[in-house]
């Protein structure tokens, strides 16, 4: 499976010089805990994400990966600990939440495009209503990012008329139109056919090259090797292991990690 | 073993289909006579339709159009056909159609309801056909709620202007105090204060309670230009009254229903409890009961001497009734939306009301169009119930027409005419909803 994954990846020279990680902190999570009712989903999460970092989060199903990144933009509420995003702490203050959400872009497994709006309207909606940008300007920005994800010609269509891969790229463009400082991806390729996975990963790689801070939940280990500067392995709601991708894949320390890698890489 | 290999040496040319499967014959065969059993059914149905129609059409067409009374009608029938059986007497409609349309509204002022109707069309056009009509007409839509009562009840132009200005004040105050509940509450408060000041201190309940009706008109009768002659509520009637109550109930129940549906989904416990309680209470009580409350019981609670216009009371009751049903229809639409839509909106930083207005409601309302329009149609027909509390809607009028010795004993012709009026309105709504569904469907995929 690892081999086939590699085949779908672009074999391209990635410009690592541009992918510098700065000392500045983008996200600071300390002692964060979350429960769903009585169920302890996230336990004592400590995580610091620096500007420009590209982090891949993996782990078995139900380990709390989605919940973790959904806590970062308050799609889920944490009950204990602290999450600070770009210097703003996430509390129940609605103003803070809306501010952080407009700084943090998110792509979902099922795209969550708005089916009643055209692609262009999907992309301009939040800039116009949240950022209060004039319509013309928002449309120009939207076209810029649609060109970047290579589907400017679909701007007038509706999401239902696009393929899965195209929809996911629109979703990425839609997030980018808000000019976010951090991008969250929750399994952006796991609902896609293999040939579409490549086009979405290409877009994400390009984003990484431009120095975007990214947190990706994904099982695309080829992508992790190529782009990530840190891989985090979660199990049972905890961070079990984190390391640079080379080390992580070559010398996993924990038994759980080894087991997981052997399953996913099929050795 | 047989030889299964085959190679075609000659390609087949295209051929016409057999004549029995195309054209008129083909259509007849496919739709009416596909086999013996269906052919028998078709013939039986045609016979039944013929039987009903021949009776009905005979009654409708072989009829008397000009007559001043039922007995005159009967004489003409005997003269012409030798019997009174199976012939309609449309003389009553000929004689009383203006009354059936306008009630006892003063005939010299008929231009006012007619103007109100024309304005209604202009006000609805930009809402119903947003893509075909200039959005500038929306100004008419915005002004209509204030113009309509003025045209219908008359009085000074300052009355609707003052009421409208109150809303502007509320809006400005609400905007100045951006967001949050405080803005809403203070906005409403300042509007109330505005109305108190506008319509004269010291304020009596009468003034507030009469709302848009004649009570207000009486306050500043001579101080204004464009003074329209006042028409009292008891002169209102006929199809005009049905349309008025129907339009107000339809227009107000949709926004109210949306708010109730959202309240029911809210995670604020008290808001939710109030909404659920309201919806369940209203749905559990027959409309007639609410109308009786409006006509009699309400007087017990209001301070004595209060002049709370009966039509306004009925409008409020019918609106509340419709809103409860509307809320449930819209809740169904909301339930049909995947949670991903909420998350998509949230993740972009849209606030609650933006998300509702731009993302959730357009989709939820689209899903609920058939249910919403059914509720509209139902509520419009239910306006005939006001005849029970002695308002003169068309059915109420038909009773008072029969009370006249000239037309004593005439039923079917009146009912047929009233049914026709309602059918036209309801069928129109039903067709519009189908048009809208088709349009939104092609738009999105
Ligand atoms: N809204 C919820 N209410 C209750 N339990 C939930 C809720 N959402 C998730 N869970 C539970 O929390 C756990 C973690 O869920 P989460 O979606 O974060 O897992 P995941 O690591 O993303 O898994 P997957 O790889 O399948 O997406 C799971 O056991 C799940 O059943
Ligand atoms: Mg998940």
Major β-sheet of chain A, in short? 6 strands, mixed
Question: How large a portion of the residues of chain A is in β-strands, by DSSP E?
Answer: 15-25%
CA-based shape of chain B: flat
Described by strand count, sense and barrel closure, the largest sheet of chain B is:
none
As a percent range, the share of helical residues of chain A equals 25-40%
| Series of H and E elements of chain B | HHHHHHHHHHHHHHHHHH
Structure commentary:
The complex is a heterodimer of chains A (267) and B (445). Mean pLDDT of chain A is 89; it is low at 1-10. Chain A is an alpha/beta fold and 267 residues long. Chain A starts with a helix and ends with a helix. In chain A, the strands form 2 sheets. Chain A has a 6-stranded mixed β-sheet, with helices on both faces. Chain A has helices spanning 2-8, 65-72, 94-103, 119-129, 135-148, 164-176, 194-209, 221-227, 245-250, 255-265; strands at residues 25-36, 39-50, 54-58, 80-85, 88-89, 104-107, 182-186, 213-217, 230-235, 238-243. The radius of gyration of chain A is 18 Å and the shape is globular. Chain B is mainly α. Chain B is built from 18 helices and no strands. Chain B has helices at residues 23-31, 36-61, 70-81, 91-102, 111-128, 138-153, 158-176, 180-198, 205-210, 214-219, 238-265, 269-283, 287-301, 310-335, 339-347, 352-382, 394-403, 412-444. In chain B, helix 12 (269-283) crosses helix 14 (310-335) and helix 13 (287-301) crosses helix 14 (310-335). The chains are: A alpha/beta (267), B mainly alpha (445). Chains A and B meet through helix 3, strand 6 and helix 4 of A and helix 15, helix 16 and helix 18 of B. Bound molecules: adenosine-5'-triphosphate and magnesium ion (MG). The site of adenosine-5'-triphosphate has 11 residues of chain A, from strand 2 and helix 2.
